[in-house]
């Protein structure tokens, strides 16, 4: 089990008021990170990250390879816990609640903060069971009818229902790559998360499947807070309302996406978006 320390006392850290330099609105942040440092053994992957993630919008995390985007994303639902050499310090709150509080139930946290990975990873089960799995273990449905309703609604929301409604019993692994990724999004939705983390969700997909996922992200943001790691700057510009630029383990700047791409404040951001490095 990873050694996790939420060392910074709440009093030392500005609370998530939405008024921090990177905050985009007057609304309190859905997720607020303060003084977050991450170490893999002796290697420090993230340095003093302060970042607010607003509710019902898409935040893109961009930056050169190895700058710590995925590491930061994994901090948000404690996926780094499963990496033995990983140590996280600082404070991350979800609706003001410290997600590294030892009393917090991590399984519940991961239901509230779902994740979609780079490579679609459906379970080797039927399409139906891929979606029903989460609600079953979380006891979300009271009976078979309610479970069916969740399966149908989740597939509809993920834009996959029409393509699979006649073959819910076939293995999810038999779908195309793009369909599998939408199945994984449906699976994440099925447990009614508040936040969906996406780690380069389109990198294994062709342009048509990518466009479908991007459309879906845009539709989902009305109901969920979405954080997406992407290497594709056009994608960040298309799907996100806010963008945070990471470089060598630092969060250099975060702002409205348009401002980051048209008028970045930091030379390093300018260098990255103009293709000088990365
Ligand atoms: N499981 C791990 N064990 C050890 N070091 C790791 C691990 N995961 C990431 N790192 C290191 O942490 C740093 C940040 O990596 P991370 O994958 O978060 O960056 P990234 O910006 O997401 O990169 P990419 O865009 O290439 O996916 C790198 O130096 C990487 O080698």
TrEMBL record:
InterPro entries, A to Z: AAA+_ATPase, ABC_transporter-like_ATP-bd, ABC_transporter-like_CS, P-loop_NTPase, PstB-like
Membrane topology reported for the UniProt record: Peripheral membrane protein
Subcellular location: Cell inner membrane
PROSITE patterns: ABC_TRANSPORTER_1, ABC_TRANSPORTER_2
Any one annotated GO CC term: plasma membrane
Pfam families, alphabetized: ABC_tran
SMART domains: AAA
SUPFAM superfamilies given in the database record: P-loop containing nucleoside triphosphate hydrolases (SSF52540)
Residue intervals passing through the bilayer: none
Keyword terms, alphabetized: ATP-binding, Cell membrane, Membrane, Nucleotide-binding, Phosphate transport, Translocase, Transport
GO molecular function, one term: ATP binding
UniProt domain ABC transporter: residue ranges: 31-273
GO terms (BP aspect): phosphate ion transmembrane transport
Biological role: Part of the ABC transporter complex PstSACB involved in phosphate import. Responsible for energy coupling to the transport system.
Protein name per its UniProtKB record: Phosphate ABC transporter ATP-binding protein
Upper classification of the organism: Bacteria, Pseudomonadati, Pseudomonadota, Alphaproteobacteria, Rhodospirillales
């Amino acid at each position: 089990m990873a050694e996790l320390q939420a060392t910074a006392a709440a009093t030392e850290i500005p609370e998530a008021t939405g008024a921090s330099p990177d905050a985009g609105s007057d609304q309190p942040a859905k997720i607020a990170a303060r003084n977050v440092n991450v170490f893999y053994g002796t290697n420090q992957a993230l340095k003093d990250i302060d970042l607010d993630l607003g509710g019902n919008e898409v935040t893109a995390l961009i930056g050169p390879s190895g700058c710590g985007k995925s590491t930061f994303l994994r901090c948000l639902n404690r996926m780094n816990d499963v990496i033995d050499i990983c140590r996280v310090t600082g404070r991350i709150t979800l609706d003001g609640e410290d997600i590294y509080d030892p009393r917090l139930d991590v399984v519940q946290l991961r239901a509230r903060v779902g994740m979609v990975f780079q490579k679609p990873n459906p379970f080797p089960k039927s399409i139906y069971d891929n979606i029903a799995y989460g609600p079953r273990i979380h006891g979300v449905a009271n009976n078979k009818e309610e479970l069916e309703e969740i399966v149908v609604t989740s597939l509809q929301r993920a834009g996959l229902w029409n393509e699979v409604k006649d073959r819910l019993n076939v293995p999810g692994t038999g779908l195309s790559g793009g369909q599998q990724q939408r199945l994984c999004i449906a699976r994440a939705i099925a447990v009614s998360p508040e936040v969906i983390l996406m780690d380069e969700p389109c990198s294994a997909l062709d342009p048509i499947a990518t466009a479908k996922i991007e459309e879906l992200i845009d539709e989902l943001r009305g109901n969920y807070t979405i954080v997406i790691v992407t290497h594709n700057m056009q994608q960040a510009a298309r799907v996100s309302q806010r963008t945070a630029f990471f470089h060598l383990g630092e969060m250099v700047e975060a702002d409205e996406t348009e401002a980051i791409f048209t008028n970045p404040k930091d030379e390093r951001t300018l260098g990255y978006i103009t293709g000088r490095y990365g």
